[in-house]
Amino acid sequence: MCGIAGIYSHKPAAPELYESIVHLQHRGTDAAGIMTYDKRMHKEKGLGLARDIFTKDNIPLLTGNIGISHNRYPTHGGFGHGEVQPVWTSVPYGIAIAHNGQITNYDELVEEVTKTEKRYLNTTSDTEVILHIFAEELNKNGNPQTSEEFFDVLCEVVSTLFKKVRGAYSITALIVGKGLVVFRDPRGIRPLVRGERVNENKWPSKGGTDYIFASENTMFYSMGYESKGNVLPGELIYVDNDGKLFSKRLVKEEFNPCIFEYVYFARPDAILNDVGVYRSRLRMGQNLAYAWKKKYPDITPDIVIPAPSTANTSALSFAHEIGVRYSEGLYKNHFIGRTFIMPGQEERKRSVKHKLVPQETEIRGKKVLIVDDSIVRGNTSREIVRMVKDFGAKEIYFVSACPPLKFPCYYGVSLPTREELIAGNKSVDSIKEILGVDILMYQEIDDLVEAVTRIGDHHIDTPCMACLDGHYVVNGRKVHELVHED
Ligand code: SF4
Q1: Largest CA distance in the chain
Q2: Burial class (CB within 10 angstroms; exposed 0-12, middle 13-18, buried 19+) of 48
Q3: Atom 1 in ligand 1: which residue has the minimum CA distance?
Q4: Together in a domain, 144 and 202
């Protein structure tokens, strides 16, 4: 999972690209980068958090009113500085791209890029492969002069790319002398939203409008952008040097956005695919509560505690629905990163204890119901249960807003292998024993889908939920057909 942004503005783009990265920091803490251009490209990248990479000295050096940015959370490729995005090539024009997602036919495309097109790959990142496919197709398509001609060429190029590249990809790109380009894979698996802002002084843009495209709209309000919905699945958008916007939906397939964005990844204030993340999490808690009352009509906990902080919203509506007090019985230290996206098992285990501190007054002698957003490997959940036991809980019930995660993700979320996923090959009863709880209840898949799609003027056909049901939406293939490709 990563965060991307692309900006066309009447003022220098870099400060706002930095602000975008900060607002998307939860989507990837491994590395970050910004590239802009005026007459030539300017870049600054590094490992770690945005606030440690970008400074008041290096941001002004990123000149130009068009640029792209990236927060990295690796799902393909290594952890080194060379893998940090945006990635770029000088032929043709000078192109840089930032990518959120993961491609599933990487090996096949590497063959094409290196053997047929004789291009050199500097990294093992799938983003670099997308860059070279895009650059090669653009190079083959003549020398368009006007923006209209260039957009026609882009339509050809991205249509070909859609046929070649399988998997999930939301892309922001800059092309020196030409402008900003964005597109989203035909299934719309990873999010990409768009915003607009009226220019203050109409310079240098002749269009009168600034544009932003980003993984989430979480930064729009603070930067004065108005939300204009989504980049559609299979849509290409081009903003030329003068701020003129061209767009076309090149292919129309089923719309299958990732359901796990709503469960865990996206910030609660984001609106993705015309569905509010916060509201969807409230509905997840509500549906869980309906299921609890049906399944355990005679069991009422004394308090409902979220495993902070993604589960706070679902726990709140769950508690409200069953009429039990909501309690922040686990205090979270906000200065420690998200455990799920930390690379090593040991780091993850260690950080749970540092991150969460139980509040004895809320727990001792009580029947405690813990709501978590999901159970991935089970380590964090087990650790939380152990801590709540240590602090004197009489009974512990554990409910997950997400159904059992049984299959890995090949579309840009680093869900581990089936062996590492606790629900990959274990029954709910044995997971209950491993966690050491009195009751374990998971959300049903249908209830989760209902929670995400119940309300909103959205056009979601079926969300991707391959990690839950093993149905991989790209080309309708099943898990066993995909596992050898990655
Ligand atoms: Fe999202 Fe799961 Fe689909 Fe991956 S497999 S895109 S995590 S729903």
Answers
A1: 75
A2: exposed
A3: 258
A4: yes
Does position 79 have pLDDT exceeding 70, yes or no?
no
Nearest-CA residue for atom 4 of ligand 1: 409
Residue 434 within any structural domain of the chain: yes
Share of the chain above pLDDT 90, in %: 82
Q: What is the average pLDDT across 132-155? A: 96
CATH for 452: 3.40.50.2020
94: domain CATH number? 3.60.20.10
Specify whether 329 is located in the same domain as 293. Answer: yes
Question: Do 131 and 201 reside in the same domain of the chain?
Answer: yes
Q: Is 61 a member of any domain?
A: yes
The number of distinct structural domains making up the chain is 2
On the CB side of 253, CA atoms within 13 Å amount to: 18
Domain that holds residue 443: 274-485
Whether residue 267 is contained in a domain is answered as no
**Alpha-carbon distance 385 to 375, whole Å?**
12
Q: How many residues does the chain have?
A: 486
Atom of ligand 1 lying closest to residue 472 CA: 5
The alpha carbon of 407 and the centre of ligand 1 are apart by a number of angstroms equal to: 9
**pTM exceeding the 0.90 threshold for the entire prediction:** yes
Active site residues: 2
CA 132 to ligand 1 centroid distance, Å: 26
Looking from the CA of residue 259, the nearest atom of ligand 1 is 8
Which residues does a 6 A CB cutoff place in the pocket of ligand 1?
189, 258-260, 409, 411, 413, 415, 464-467
Using alpha carbons, select from 252, 204, 284, 266 the residue that is nearest to residue 454.
Answer: 284
In a domain, 423, yes or no: yes
Smallest Cα–Cα separation from 389: which of 457, 428, 435?
A: 435
pLDDT in tens, 19-31: 999 999 999 999 9
Residue with tokens 């491994």: 30
Q: 362: exposed, middle or buried (C-beta count within 10 Å: 0-12, 13-18, 19+)?
A: buried
Domain boundary among 220, 253, 286: 253
Q: Where are the alpha helices (DSSP H) in 176-276?
A: 220-223, 260
Do residue 174 and residue 39 come from a single domain? yes
- 308-340 tens-digit pLDDT: 999 999 999 999 999 999 999 999 887 765 555
- Pair (11, 81) in one structural domain: yes
For residue range 187-202, list pLDDT tens digits in order.
999 999 999 999 866 5
The mean per-residue pLDDT over the stretch 440-454 comes to 97
The one-letter amino acid at 38? D
CA nearest neighbour of 405 among 263, 310, 289, 309: 263
Is the domain of 414 the same as that of 479?
A: yes
